[in-house]
Amino acid sequence: MSLILILALPFAGSLCAALLPSNARNAEAWLAGLIALACVVLIATLYPDVANGGVVRADMPWAPALGLQFTLRMDGYAWLFALIVSGMGALVVLYARYYMSPEDPVPRFFSFFQAFMGAMLGVVLSGNLIQLVLFWEMTSLASFMLIAYWHHRLDARRGARMALTVTGAGGLCLLAGVLILGHIVGSYDMDRVLASGDLVRADPWYPAVLVLVALGALTKSAQFPFHFWLPNAMAAPTPVSAYLHSATMVKAGVFLLARFWPVLSGTDEWFWIIGGLGLITLVLGAYAAIFQQDMKGVLAYSTISHLGLITLLLGLNSTLALVAAIFHMINHATFKASLFMAAGVVDHETGTRDLGRLSGLYKAMPITATLAMVAAASMAGVPLLNGFLSKEMFFAETTFVSADRYVQLGLPLLATIAGAFSVAYSLRFILQVFFGPPATDLPREPHEPPRWMLLPSALLVLMCLLVGIVPSLTVGPFLATAAQSILGENMPDYSLAVWHGFNLPLAMSLVATTAGVLLYLALRAHQRANPGRVPFIYRLDGRRTFEALLDGSSVAAAWLLRWVSSTRLQVQMVLILVGTLFVAWLPLRAGGWLDGAVRLTPVDPVFALLWIVGGTCALAAAFQAKYHRLA
């Protein structure tokens, strides 16, 4: 019953929020906040049931003829992510209450926000593959609504369209992948699938499943070459960015890779596809973040880079790397959401996010600056903060990879370079905004926001400090529970101690920090000497490629229409019908269904009758339309 309530409450709240009047700002915030807190409480009460490797399930009939049940499933890993989704949702609701202006249609915002929360919880708690894809696509639709919330702005409409197109296409690939996966296993039930790793990896269709599932996950988590949608999604309100683009939506892809880790990992294909694309994304995103002029642009590309770090860890085929990946998912959610909130506060109180205009805000906004500095230090991997611990684990795993000599030498080197880039963009984010001479041409006079608007960021920064200082007492038990639910008996021994002595990962951290500081100083001097020079990275604009592809598809559609040589709707419908039947016939012929080699799913007589009646009506309507004056 608890699992059903956890999933149902956000959707019920979404419906209620849509029905409230537009001037009910406090009622909307209270409704969304209380629902998120109720989910947190319900999830927390289930921890004893999953702490020792247990699994909580709730099964309801869905499509018995297809062997499908609507199943909610919570293990330690799902529990951790559900807590992040609901807990972060409660903090962002409080932040949004003070961020949104009186002119904004708040009911629409909180309705879409809670719908997304429900969809994300559905992804985390799904107990069968088809249900997972259903909620997966719901997150894409809800995020489209949230990114396009300010739909009067062209950049918001473009960013939402790009996000929906990329992640929606990835969702279709994921659907194809899980259909093949379910066919291999003989079931779509998550428990049976997770227990069938050897069967799946030995199947000839394994490469296809891996590629299709990877496409679904990598598009959602903005991995190269699909990373370009995330910076353009920064047109969304900052509460949306703090929630979707730090802790939830972009984490769905890496969540899925870790969820399917027992099934798909352990092969060379997994190592090169997942690990290789993660490495490229890690370095490319970190490099691009250095040169962004928008505060949220810096955070967007740094998010891409950190998601690449997590993807790389998952691709290393190491159990300890999996633990490090889950740990960094937690850490990244805390410091990145806090930084997005800080960027939103600066934009809210000054009227701009342009790094070229912002300067010297520390005197006017000391609390905001302090919170941002701690969160940025965690992002850079400064000791005694949570980001340092997971970065140390990452560096250690890059030195233990089992591969050829070039990979063993190149991987730690590239990891250190990415770490240096991380330090450089973190320094630029802080020093250029809060230090230096005070800016004189800001749209608004800078000042601190209301204290309740700062509270969510302060709580997240406090978590960064507590986890960084006493990790074993704070996050240690939850991390172990989550990792054990995936690894089972293969759980490795590890330590979350702050100090491990002088070793190679510590040396890599010191080199990365020193190199990052020197790189920032060199870039600042170079930019002052060449203020009008455009960085090369700006020429690699994925948005232009995306728009060119859309324009090309429109041209192709126009050519096809001319080739058909008919604007009559009947002719076009016949072509669509014939093409659909041909595509449906191909798998039936290839799979042996037509010659009786494979048993077809039993057909319900009622549904068969409905299909016959519906088809007859459609044919009759088409025949009658032939004589219509508009046909």
Question: Strand tally, please?
Answer: 2
Q: Describe the strand arrangement of the main beta sheet, using strand numbers.
A: 1-2
Beta-strand percentage range? under 5%
Mean pLDDT: 89
Question: Rough shape?
Answer: globular
Class derived from helix and strand content? mainly alpha
List low-pLDDT spans.
none
**What's the end-to-end separation, in Å?**
54 Å
Q: What does the main sheet amount to?
A: 2 strands, antiparallel
Report the radius of gyration as a whole number of Å: 26 Å
* Count of DSSP H/I helices: 27
What is the percent of helical residues?
Answer: over 70%
Q: What's the SSE pattern?
A: HHHEEHHHHHHHHHHHHHHHHHHHHHHHH
Describe this structure in words.
48% of the residues are buried. The model has no long low-confidence stretch (mean pLDDT 89). The protein has a domain at 269-533. Helix 15 (268-290) runs antiparallel to helix 16 and helix 17 packs antiparallel against helix 18 (366-380). The protein is mostly helical and 631 residues long. The protein has helices at 2-19, 25-45, 47-50, 76-99, 106-125, 129-147, 154-185, 190-194, 197-202, 206-220, 229-232, 238-244, 249-259, 261-264, 268-290, 295-315, 319-350, 366-380, 386-399, 405-434, 451-469, 471-474, 476-487, 504-529, 542-564, 569-590, 605-625, and strands at residues 56-63, 68-74. The longest helix is centred in the N-terminal third of the chain and has 32 residues, at 154-185. It is 72% helix and 2% strand. The protein contains 27 helices and 2 strands. The radius of gyration is 26 Å and the shape is globular. A hairpin with a 4-residue loop joins strand 1 and strand 2. It has a two-stranded antiparallel sheet.
